[in-house]
Amino acid sequence: MTNEHFNTGLMQFLDRSPTPFHAVANLATTLSEAGFARIEEADRWVIEAPGKYFVTRGAASLVAFSLGNDPVVEAGIQMIGSHTDSPCLKLKPHTAFTAHGYCQLGVEVYGGVLLNPWFDRDLSLAGRVTLRRGDELIQRLIDFEQAIAVIPSLAIHLDRDANNKRSINPQTYLPAIMCLDNGDFDLDRALVERLRNDDPGLGEVEIVAFELSLYPTEKAALVGLRNEFIASARLDNLLSCYLSAAALTHCSAANNCLIVCSDHEEVGSASAIGARGTFLRSVIERLTATSEAYARAIARSTLVSTDNAHGVHPNFADNHDDQHLPLLNGGPAIKVNSNQAYASTSETAALFKQACRAVGVPVQSFVSRTDKICGSTIGPLTATALGVKTVDVGVPTFAMHSIRELAGSEDAYSLYRALAWFFGRRE
After folding, report:
1. pLDDT tens digits for 103-132?
2. Rounded distance, CA 410 to CA 229, Å?
3. What is the CATH number of the domain that holds 105?
4. Distance from the first to the final alpha carbon of the chain
């Protein structure tokens, strides 16, 4: 695989995955095509080694694993963790309303959204809907794909201080305009019509509930004079989901390897399908059978938590520690925080550096300024829940949590190569 081929696949995945539901569905397709068998949490598991399997929870989180010849208890599991969600604008349950001749959608801010870039963008709508068909409740993914909404800015003529001190009221400034009010707009009907376009045999259904998000229709792209950068929505953290799945599908058949892609990281991971939940631990317990076997396996395991890092922005360099300035295309960054916002230790950082060195990939370090509070990842949460040795790493990124983020066009492939080595693939 070349860097160009890798980035082509990455950008296609980003474009096809406007929500965590779509991301997991696309990961499931990739894994199935690579020979991984789908299993269900509610079923009795019959796992064979060697063997390749994946399981989902809530349609937005996924665990996949490849078992080698050595028992999990004796060899442990090499694990990679990432998250499927990104900050965005989600529709409220009673979302549609009219005002001054326009049909609008009321939204709720999900996660730490950088709000200004959402104005004046071509927006579409995607997510999951629950339908009633007769006495049956069914679920379907939906994606309008084309631009159907916009959040227009207020003209500067009406707010001369807009560039100096305008603050955004998310309740009143962010409702999206969807169409003119002709007296016949019905969002439920529009959703059903869209679903029927994808499935003409759907039959008579009615909308019961939905989880829908607005998203920008602009496609992922290589930018820069020499295509040095990749620009896209949801780089944080679908980039990591894609490369972890790529590493797993190419892992050594002799090793025990696992990826976990969890939803709700951007809002604290406290859910049944988030990293604070029981999903990953439950899977490993089912692979080890007893508490003794579980403890022995975890003691021999390592987790690489992959989540984007902050690259040093040349216009805002004073927001970084002068000795820790990750550059885009300078290689993945090991994230360190002495207060355990990141789970890296000297032992686990050394293991990751060894992987990078083995494949000739440069490696950097990220530490927040001492006078600033840093973010966190699923790394400390998973390390706490499992007791597993963990290192936090990520691709340096600009405009994190914006509607369109920027990363180096070489870094994702570099991190993939290091993780493939970590999974036992020797190139």
Report:
1. 999 999 999 999 999 999 999 999 999 999
2. 8
3. 2.30.250.10
4. 11
Listed residue (234, 230, 277) closest to 126, CA to CA: 234
For 351, residues 6+ apart whose C-beta sits below 8 A from its C-beta are: 302, 391, 422
Q: Alpha carbon of 52 to those of 76, 170, 249: distances in Å?
A: 16, 45, 9
Amino acid making up residue 238: L
In whole angstroms, give the CA distance from residue 333 to residue 325: 10
76-96: per-residue pLDDT in tens? 999 999 999 999 999 999 999
Give the domain CATH number at 357: 3.40.630.10
- Do 244 and 301 reside in the same domain of the chain? yes
Q: Are strands 333-335 and 364-366 parallel, antiparallel or unpaired?
A: parallel
CA distances from 40 to 33, 72, 121 (A): 18, 20, 39
Q: Show the domain range for 134.
A: 88-216
**Please, how many CA atoms are within 13 Å of residue 314, restricted to the half-sphere of its CB?**
2
Is the pTM of the predicted complex or chain greater than 0.85?
yes
Cα(14)–Cα(35) distance, integer angstroms: 22
Q: Is residue 123 classed as helix, strand or coil in its secondary structure?
A: strand
Judgement on whether residues 357 and 333 belong to the same structural domain of the protein: yes
How far is residue 99 from each of residues 107, 110, 336, 391, measured CA to CA in Å? 15, 24, 49, 50
